[in-house]
Design a protein that fits this description.
mainly alpha, Arc Repressor Mutant, subunit A, 7 helices, Myb_dom, transcription, DNA binding
């Protein structure tokens, strides 16, 4: 199959945008028939006019039968919060600990539901954290000597 390149060096004629039910069913049938294969071979075998990356992401994030869809359970959310404290934004490592959940799904759930609730609680004491209690002169830290008291700088700092 010969590919023509347009001015922006991308293969011409590839479909972009939302996937149709027809394309989803073709991708499912191809994966059932051939199983795991090279992603670069998939669009031509499935009869899709999509790039290989689009096919791979559609299968891994939406169509694969191993994906767990729907609401996150409470224990899954707790695990995500604990793993995020430990690993940070390494969504693929976190997804490896939650079977059936994709890294993209976990990242989206974190950003929309959990990130605000997982931040440390602010103190509700009587003093605001930005207000300082005045100290007695004897409790203050001594001024730092910045080297401005040398004899040659005397006239400049007066």
């Amino acid at each position: 199959m010969e590919k023509r390149l347009s001015n922006d060096k991308k293969p011409a004629g590839l479909r972009r945008g939302a996937w149709t039910e027809e394309e989803d069913s073709r991708l499912r049938r191809c994966m059932e028939k051939y199983g795991a294969m090279k992603w670069c071979d998939l669009p031509s075998k499935a009869g899709l006019n999509r790039c290989r990356k689009s096919c791979r992401l559609r299968w891994l994030n939406y169509l694969s039968p191993t994906i767990k869809r729907g609401r996150f359970e409470e224990d899954e959310e707790d695990l995500i919060i604990r793993l995020h404290k430990l690993l940070g934004n390494r969504w693929s490592l976190i997804a490896g600990r939650l079977p059936g959940r994709t890294a993209n799904d976990i990242k989206n759930h974190w950003n929309t539901h959990l990130s605000k609730g997982a931040s440390p609680k602010k103190s509700h004491g009587t003093l605001k954290p930005y207000l300082k209690v005045p100290q007695k002169r004897s409790q203050r830290r001594p001024e730092r000597n910045l080297g401005l008291s040398s004899p040659d700088l005397g006239p400049l700092i007066q």
